[in-house]
């Protein structure tokens, strides 16, 4: 059990993700339930460096469980990469009299935690990004919602692609990681998916070969998913059309996948992680990132969390290919 | 009352639209209910010219009421623009022993009806296009669904745009018509919309001026809708960002808006129009386009329908601007 | 042109409907755009009688366009049926220095307007109810959303009803009016619908006869829609199961249909009606209900509006029956 | 590696669940990819006992990935509880020349597998039920979709409950298990949930106490989730209204939660399980149930799977209570 906790801060950092608000609500409500005062810090670390804050009461987080985005706003904070910025942030943390800081964000945001820890700031990280590219956790807040948005979009494309016996190329988000693309491909029934994790096979030649093979088997329309980390959807669509004669259209989902009401899974996991963050603080179990691995939550040391490597399992890609015939 | 009707054909032509299947189902069921045999013609007029057909029974149209796209497939048919193509189509119509042909499509498809009528083909047109750009009708099948898909997408964009205090530029479909853009702008709460009907005011200067004005009034994020007929969203986003310093992202919805389960309105209107098409045939009231105007269905002579002009009401644009402050 | 308008009040009354917030936002923004101050009155007429109010600024209505319910809350106000209550309300209207009052609600709420008009209150009514049972208007705010919610629910029921070859009885809202039921039946592809407008044919005998007939034609599952004004779904399901041997389940949608984000149509119409309400006030064109008839908005005298009769068109029911085979 | 596999059967049994079709598609496509013929058995074990079957080709399962229900239909089969029925089924299995049988269903269906195994039938079970009440697996196909449907419904109820400052009681499915209720409560932000796993605390007294307490803290509306296994929602709503004076409405979601397009998670997991089922058959690894535990798939002996006990973790309930203030 740690020393008495009276006041904590919370911020959302990096790209926003559906479910951030649910996590925030859980942090605030669990804290208030333990008589801890909560300070909301706006615009990520920028708000900490500039004292851009407001107290959060129970009512401030009512009706946000199901809302996309983050009511605290989010932003990148280049200044936090400098020693000066880190000192500034740590100093305001002390002036505010905070006992701990909950950071809802991705690996980049947790780097900030790691830096602040050196100046005596007690941090707890909650993994939130639609891209699933956080090394220490098999689950990240927002991924499930982004995948469902992608699958829903692909279903709509499939309708019109089928009517016109065309080919659709659909580019989904994910930055350098192919998780969203892979899940969208399997969930949407795509016959090919181009992933940054296997760049050598993600060529237009392979795609075109697959399309022609599938047409020869009687398929009347085609669906290809492209990960953001590969890109070039418009060019790919053009090449497919030129080389196969099949009318091909590209659609780039873009930021669409970043918004929307969070799914039930994202709401539940985000709520549980927010609750757990405050429990860790109450136990004095600081400078941890909460992770969800092998069906359970765990608290991992921030330094260790940031040094972990996530492996890409090629199995799922194989299954997409088998199911696409 | 016309002569006895024994057999009719039905096809979907031009760009597909959600609700085409609902109209098709209504045509088939109403016909069967009147002991009329129905032949489904595939891939628009191409199927008529090439005898690409299949009989449609009641079961063939069960479970399609709520499905996007068209089970008959659709396509453009360049050959139908030639006299030769038209004769070919009219000839097959006679060989099949059809008493009438129901064409579900847009003005381009109705031009085909007009041409075929000269060769003794009895046509009934049902207006279906997401673009609402059919001259004779205030309502077209698919528009309501496309607008709802657009508004839903804009709502998602709004979440992340708000979190990051950015500007979003969202390009929606509509070809040369701005109806979808206008409705999406009002339904999505956009502050500016660029329409092909008012190209002179649809400039980046105006948009940027509006954005800056709104920021000065305290607005923290911005949303601009661009009609397909204006285009250039990526360039506009870039210009906004350069000139205002506000991070700006473009999203092009594209064919996404063409798919999806039809809304209740599109299902109901499409069903009623399909029913009415067969009623007109039974009455011998041929070569008409069904229109929905002033809250009522009406049957308009095809030639007249194609010569009508749809006026663009500037009122709605004015209201968008007033509500955007 | 009327005398200068400086301050208006706005309230939502009766059962809430999706799109009320969109209308409210349009009233506030249009008023502010014309330098009119707006007072939000809470809990319907109760708030007027008790001075339960707050000023509404532009920011207060941002982010509400797409939210169900009403941020002003709504309630029935029995006291408004008494002369005393009416005088009290009219008095507070004067103390607040209001130039007009916008009432968003149904016929019951407009009765309040009629009463207040006698005491010098200038009212504008905006028709909002999911039930569509407002005499003077073919459209009411919320109906389209409620119908889409109903059709979506029926589609889900259809999945499991089909899997198990059962019969589903789905009861939808609408109070004494069958509009929601009729639209849900056609949009959901139901084979029978029981309406309060045709009570004599809405019998379990007819339903059972229809079900047996459809099974004999090869239909493997059944779907019956029951209007709230008929009720008794559980009993009907039981009777169907007993008399036909077909497993039958009843589902009562209830208040589910009252909530949810408004559809694009409800957002657009509500926005236009809110805008128009302020325009009427600016013109000094008082004590009107805004209606949408024959594809156009119109302003109808409140007394006249309340004396109008809405006829029930049996045509749509006939079409449902034809399409259900 | 087992002996050569040439022909397998597949059936869906028990209550249907969204994602059953996705699993079926994966079984068929993976089998065909390995040159195995697939026989679809209709209406669960009934089809096996009565030879109600049809061969499934690749095309038969296209466009079903995203459809709720099961194209093979499902049913309970009382006859399978008798030795006679089991012998009959095993006999037809042999006559058809099947090498294995894939059963998509719940624990009841796996009891059928266990019985058939004694007669030499090679079974693989895939866990599918919205109720999550399968002892051997932390995940079951359909649960995620049912929970999302529930949370979506609760969100709609919340809108109107908030507008009118009422209390809503929402009864969700789950039979004797409270998983759906618990997830819906946390995902929907309910303040109380009545679970069959803790019947002693699931009393109207506790609920009413909680409601009054929350109102005293400033909460303006209330939301209570009731599990099917507790039931009595109408009575509870009545009692709450009588004892607190707060207007209260009950909504019973019922079979609504059984339908709908499967979520991305249900599509992906079902696809992977279907794929894995055929892999196990190819390996000769028979009479197994596929389970998903601790973040991984595993194959558990049917007898063992059926003897396992699933524990109910009270933690999640505690968190719901903390977050509800």
UniProtKB/TrEMBL annotation, chains A, B, C, D:
Allosterically activated by ADP and other diphosphonucleosides, and allosterically inhibited by phosphoenolpyruvate. Keywords: Allosteric enzyme, ATP-binding, Cytoplasm, Glycolysis, Kinase, Magnesium, Metal-binding, Nucleotide-binding, Transferase. It catalyses: beta-D-fructose 6-phosphate + ATP = beta-D-fructose 1,6-bisphosphate + ADP + H(+). One of its GO terms (cellular component) is 6-phosphofructokinase complex. ADP binds at residues 25-29, 158, 189-191, 217, 219-221. Pathway: Carbohydrate degradation; glycolysis; D-glyceraldehyde 3-phosphate and glycerone phosphate from D-glucose: step 3/4. The active site is at residue 131. It comes from the Bacteria. GO terms for biological process: canonical glycolysis; fructose 1,6-bisphosphate metabolic process; fructose 6-phosphate metabolic process. SUPFAM superfamilies: Phosphofructokinase. Residues 7-281 form the Phosphofructokinase domain. The keyword Kinase applies. ATP binds at residues 15, 76-77, 106-109. Its main location: cytoplasm. InterPro entries: ATP_PFK, ATP_PFK_prok-type, PFKA_ATP_prok, Phosphofructokinase_CS, Phosphofructokinase_dom, PKF_sf. It is found in: Cytoplasm. Substrate binds at residues 129-131, 166, 173-175, 228, 249, 255-258. Mg(2+) binds at residue 107. GO terms for molecular function: 6-phosphofructokinase activity; AMP binding; ATP binding; fructose-6-phosphate binding; identical protein binding; metal ion binding; monosaccharide binding. Transmembrane segments: none annotated. Its cofactor is Mg(2+). Belongs to the phosphofructokinase type A (PFKA) family. ATP-dependent PFK group I subfamily. Prokaryotic clade 'B1' sub-subfamily. Homotetramer. This is ATP-dependent 6-phosphofructokinase. It comes from Candidatus Fimicola merdigallinarum.
């Amino acid at each position: 059990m740690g020393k008495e906790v009276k006041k904590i801060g919370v911020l959302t950092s990096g790209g926003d993700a559906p479910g951030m608000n649910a996590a925030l609500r859980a942090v605030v409500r669990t804290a208030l339930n333990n008589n801890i005062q909560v300070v909301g810090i706006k615009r990520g670390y920028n708000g900490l460096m500039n004292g851009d804050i407001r107290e959060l009461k129970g009512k401030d987080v009512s009706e946000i469980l199901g809302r996309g985005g983050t009511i605290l706003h989010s932003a990148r904070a280049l200044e936090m990469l400098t020693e000066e910025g880190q000192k500034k942030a740590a100093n305001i943390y002390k002036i505010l009299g905070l006992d701990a800081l909950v950071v809802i964000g991705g690996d980049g945001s947790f780097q900030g935690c790691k830096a602040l820890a050196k100046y005596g700031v007690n941090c707890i990280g909650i993994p939130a990004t639609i891209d699933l590219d956080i090394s220490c956790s098999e689950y990240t807040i927002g991924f499930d919602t982004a995948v469902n948005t992608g699958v829903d979009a692909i279903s709509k494309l499939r309708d019109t692609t089928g009517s016109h016996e065309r080919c659709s190329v659909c580019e989904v988000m994910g930055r350098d990681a192919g998780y969203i693309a892979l899940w969208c491909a399997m969930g949407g029934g795509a016959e090919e998916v181009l992933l940054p994790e296997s760049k050598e096979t993600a060529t237009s030649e392979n795609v075109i070969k697959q399309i022609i093979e599938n047409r020869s088997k009687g398929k009347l329309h085609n669906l290809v998913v492209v990960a953001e980390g590969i890109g070039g959807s418009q060019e790919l669509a053009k090449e497919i059309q030129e080389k196969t004669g099949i009318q091909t259209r590209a659609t780039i989902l873009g930021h669409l996948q970043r918004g929307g009401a969070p799914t039930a899974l994202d709401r539940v996991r985000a709520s549980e992680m927010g609750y757990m963050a405050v429990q860790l603080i109450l136990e004095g179990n600081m400078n941890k990132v909460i992770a969800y691995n092998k069906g359970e939550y765990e608290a991992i040391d921030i330094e260790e969390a940031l040094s972990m490597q996530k492996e890409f399992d090629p199995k799922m890609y194989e299954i997409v290919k088998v199911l696409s015939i």
